[in-house]
Design goal:
By secondary structure, the chain is of the alpha/beta class. The chain is built from ten helices and eleven strands. The chain has three domains: 81 residues, Winged helix-like DNA-binding domain superfamily/Winged helix DNA-binding domain (Arc Repressor Mutant, subunit A), CATH 1.10.10; 102 residues, Periplasmic binding protein-like II (D-Maltodextrin-Binding Protein, domain 2, 3-Layer(aba) Sandwich); 99 residues, 3-Layer(aba) Sandwich (D-Maltodextrin-Binding Protein, domain 2). Strands 3, 4, 5, 6, 7, 8, 9, 10 and 11 form a nine-stranded mixed sheet that branches. Strands 1-2 form a two-stranded antiparallel ribbon. Strand 7, helix 8 and strand 8 form a beta-alpha-beta unit. The radius of gyration is 23 Å and the shape is elongated. This is LysR family transcriptional regulator.
């Protein structure tokens, strides 16, 4: 079994279809299918269960996946070792993050890393859901809940705070808010309830708000609703400097604390480039949250 066979196997396992794997590998799907069939003949076991929904790993395929990922990491480490170390970083690193972090924190952090290391290629994937590292949707992921399964390493980055916020104009033209019970008389901005992908994002149920008048699965859109005077809602403190017309409401009564975690593949800790980028992202995010929260 050679690395090229494993490379094709990994692409199908992650893409769950021949066409998705073909796009990654720049091969015709029929060629990918022939290579998978040949690999299954060589191993003497079916590696995928074929269905109209795609290619799912069998038990044998799941066992091979662990070793294929180890081989992938070994190839990467070997490539970097042969390239030598010059102090600068190069290559592509994809960072997955919830859109609040992706929009308000990561751009400054990544821009700083890119200035220090001009050969690096940094990509930010902003998705309103949990990033799937096992399918290599990203090399690093920022999460608001630490994952409990998978061959992953998890590091706490930093805590961050959130408060109710609204515009001065909105507050001046609507009934006064003296306590959480007064929120019932106001339009509330927040997540679409059935699209909350992590329990840590269910802010409104925590403060007793039972109806979302203006909803979105995007933090950036929610902030836009608030900036336009659409109502009152929970906002990240680190996002408030980007919306100077907002002010905190009931700050002494309602204050939420959440945590960012850095998640990556366990084997990537042995790859120098990935470890150095992870260290810079972790330190940069911690400093950026502190900087922006100090402005509010």
């Amino acid at each position: 079994m050679d690395w090229d066979d494993l490379r094709i196997f990994l692409a199908v396992a992650r893409g769950e279809s021949l066409s998705a794997a073909g796009r990654v590998l720049k091969l015709d799907p029929a060629t990918v299918g022939r290579r998978i069939s040949k690999l299954e003949e060589a191993t003497g076991a079916p590696l995928f269960a074929r269905s109209p929904q795609g290619y799912g790993l069998t038990d044998a395929g799941a066992r091979l996946l662990v070793h294929a990922e180890d081989a992938e990491q070994a190839v990467t480490r070997g490539t970097e070792a042969l390239a030598g170390t010059t102090g600068g970083l190069s290559g592509q690193v994809r960072i997955g993050a919830p859109d609040g972090c992706a929009n308000f924190l990561l751009p400054r952090v990544c821009a700083h890393i890119a200035r220090e290391h001009p050969e690096i290629e940094l990509q930010i994937v902003a998705l309103p859901r949990i990033i799937n590292l096992s399918k290599r949707e990203a090399d690093l992921a920022i999460a608001v809940s630490p994952p409990t399964t998978g061959r992953l390493t998890v590091q706490k980055i930093t805590d961050y705070t959130l408060h109710l916020a609204a515009t001065e104009e909105y507050l001046a033209s609507h009934p006064p808010i003296e306590g959480p019970e007064d929120l019932r008389a106001h339009p509330v901005v927040g997540y679409i309830p059935d699209m909350i992908f992590d329990k840590e994002l269910d802010y409104l149920s925590e403060i007793g708000a039972d109806k979302v008048t203006l909803g979105s699965n995007s933090v950036s859109v929610q902030l836009g609703f608030l900036r336009e005077g659409g109502g009152i809602g929970i906002a990240h403190d680190f996002a408030l400097p980007f919306a100077p017309n907002l002010r905190k409401v009931l700050a002494d009564r309602i204050s939420l604390t959440r945590t960012f975690y850095l998640v990556r593949h366990a084997g990537d800790a042995r790859i120098e480039r990935m470890s150095r980028v992870a260290e810079m992202v972790l330190g940069g995010l911690k400093a950026e949250v502190a900087r922006l929260e100090a402005l509010t």
